[in-house]
Amino acid sequence: MTESTSATHGDPILSLRGINKSFGAVHVLKDVGMDAWAGKVTALVGDNGAGKSTFVKGIAGIYTFDSGDYRFDGKSVSVSSPKQSAALGIEVVYQDLALCDNLDVVQNMFLGREMRSGITLNETAMERRAEETLKGLSVRTLKSVRQKVSSLSGGQRQTVAIAKAVLWNSKLVILDEPTAALGVAQTEQVLQLVRRLADNGLAVILISHNMNDVLRVADSVCALYLGRTAAQVDAKSTTTTQIVELITSGRSGDLGLPASLEQEAVA
After folding, report:
1. What pLDDT digit, counting tens, does each position of 162-178 carry?
2. What residues make up the domain containing 190?
3. Domain boundary residue among 169, 193, 212?
């Protein structure tokens, strides 16, 4: 970890230190650390097998970390279930989006958390809240919140999934490859939405393999290398070459893992 990120962005809403996770004899995460800040986009990058998915699933409570310090909103917390993670204000938008094609936008946004008036669903209130949430994110690409998800483009689906995540007073939103398989115009729409999430005061963790996307919207970049944090750096003072080197070798000039840890990671 580098100190420049904290100096630039202030106190993080999420701070992880010394995180370890093993599955049997396989040590997947080794003393991993990362910070994320309200109002900022933190990119989490790394090659396949670097530990990104395990790390995010631990933050979300799907996995329980074996050891380490998990701090949220300035307090040390223990998260061992998605329900606990959601109660803190953490929402994850996974790559598969988990949307139901046969339901409309409102039904998807409130799926499993429906608003009721007595024993019946309060469709009017849910529709109003859905529209307010989309309006607050400056989403103008949807004709109606009563459109079936099956009729939406990839970019529109991603928008609905993100809006669903921020509907529940979330403080931190984790986005797993939100621009994967999108065209140029749809990618632009989603990146603008990612930036607006942060501008609205949310902390955003963006997982991406696309370095152009990362440097477009990220304020900070945390690079994982073979289960370790190579470095977390300020995006504005970092080049694509440096990030790629951190991802592929764990070091870039003076940045990254000490030589002893780099060799240990490879071993």
Report:
1. 999 998 889 999 999 99
2. 4-89+171-266
3. 169
Question: What residues pair up with 45 in beta bridges, in sequence order?
Answer: 223
CATH of the domain at 204: 3.40.50.300
Model confidence at 5: pLDDT above 80: no
Task: Evaluate whether 6 touches 12 at the Cβ level (below 8 Å).
Answer: yes
Q: Who wins on pLDDT, 136 or 127? A: 127
**Of 134, 61, 53, 136, which Cα lies nearest the Cα of 91?**
61
- CB atoms closer than 10 angstroms to residue 74: 9
Same domain for 121 and 58: no
Same domain assignment for residues 175 and 241: yes
The verdict on residue 94 lying in a domain is no
Q: How many alpha carbons fall within 13 Å on the CB side of residue 8?
A: 18
Looking at the structure, tell me whether residues 175 and 261 fall in a common domain: yes
Q: Residue 64: how many CA atoms within 13 Å on its side-chain side? A: 8
